[in-house]
Specification:
Elements: H1 18-23, E1 77-82, E2 87-94, E3 113-116, E4 126-132, E5 155-160, E6 165-177, H2 183-187, E7 193-205, E8 209-223
Parallel strand pairs: 2-3, 4-7
Antiparallel strand pairs: 1-2, 1-5, 3-4, 5-6, 6-8, 7-8
Length: about 220
């Protein structure tokens, strides 16, 4: 994969919280698979990643926000649906632990996803973060086992406690080695409502688990 700058486009500001600054130190290693591993999950193809710009280094392009899609006020998300890969999962609140690492969802529930509750609520202006396991301790598929199979244009729906549904459209799906995880790009602030969906990915070994993360980038395109 071509190298990518970790800074964002001038059209989106990067103003991380203290929690995010700490979180970046452990990004790419927060979701580690269990001891058993039966089948490799799908990995994103290069065509589903961001289109590189000309020059010695590539970076993501940020389309302009759609003024016809209003952002939503903060409200707790309850459920996440990804029709293309048959995901329909409840969302639980996730927090940072004492070391500043994001606590993953409980490892024994294969159909549970989580959202970083101290960050942006999905549908509000900023970068909302959701995560889930690719597989669980038994080796069975987790809620985001198929995440790497998503394509640009697929939709992600998030039901909220205010009875609104935030609909996001996938802009890109990428996989990063944890040693070169672009934290600023993944977690940086935004002037529009954006969503990240993250799970384990990349190479796998029994001794160390997955060596990277699959990251889905999506932007709010409809409100129900």
């Amino acid at each position: 994969m071509a190298s990518r700058r970790t800074t964002r486009s001038p059209s989106s500001s990067f103003v991380p919280s203290v929690g995010l600054l700490v979180w970046t130190l452990v990004a790419g290693a927060v979701l580690v698979a269990g001891a058993l591993h039966y089948e490799p999950p799908p990995q994103p193809s290069a065509v589903q990643g961001f289109s590189p710009l000309p020059g010695p280094a590539a970076h993501r392009t940020v389309p302009p926000a759609d003024p016809d899609v209003p952002s939503l006020p903060p409200a707790e998300p309850l459920r996440l649906r990804i029709p293309a890969i048959n995901v329909n999962a409840p969302l639980t609140k996730l927090h940072l632990d004492a070391t500043g690492a994001l606590e993953p969802p409980p490892p024994d529930d294969p159909n549970l996803a989580g959202w970083y509750s101290e960050g942006t609520a999905p549908g509000s202006v900023g970068t909302a973060v959701t995560t889930g396991h690719v597989d669980v301790r038994t080796g069975n598929p987790g809620v985001f086992f198929g995440l790497g199979a998503l394509s640009k244009g697929n939709t992600i729906e998030i039901d909220r406690v205010d009875r609104r549904t935030a609909v996001f459209t996938v802009e890109a799906v990428e996989v990063y080695d944890k040693e070169h995880f672009p934290s600023r790009m993944v977690y940086g602030g935004s002037r529009r409502p954006e969503l990240r969906v993250i799970t384990c990915g990349g190479a796998y070994t029994k001794g160390t688990g997955y060596q990277g993360n699959v990251v889905v980038y999506a932007t709010l395109t409809a409100v129900g």
